[in-house]
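Task 17 of the worksheet. Students: predict the tertiary structure of the chain below and write it out as structure tokens. Keep your answer in the requested format; marks are given for formatting as well as content.
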Amino acid sequence: MRYGEDHQRALVDAVFDELPEEMSAAADGGVIRPRDAGAMDALGQLRDDLEAALMLIKHPGFVDERETRYCVGIHHWLDEAALPPGVVRHRATAYGMAPYLVLTGTGEQGTPIVSTTAPLPIRALAISPSPNGRAATESARDLLAAYGYDVPVVRSRIPYRE
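Model answer:
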């Protein structure tokens, strides 16, 4: 994790140092064509680099919280029908329909999409600062238990500020 602003800037700068070369590789005569596989590969690499960098940036106020961040992206620019049905699901939110993935433990060797589920390797859950910390902790504990997890659920020591 990068908590200090100088370290965060260095990380972002490292990603963007390669931007001219990656954009050049993505461009064809100065125009990026969204359905061109080469352009999508180059832009995909830039996206992956940005996601990796952003997952490492965290506010210094959370330096005491240990966590694992996991980011999953499924992009299907070239062949819309390539994903099996039901991989990307949708739910209603206050902002409209939002796509989501159901994560599962490891499945068949070497495949990113599996047809059978396995438990995730959850070892503990930390509840972030909240005005309803006690209720959130109990609700999370009940939810985990409903899915067969018996792991510690702890509230953050950081006080909630409105």
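Marker's comment: The chain has a mean pLDDT of 76. Helices lie at 5-17, 19-26, 37-56, 133-146.
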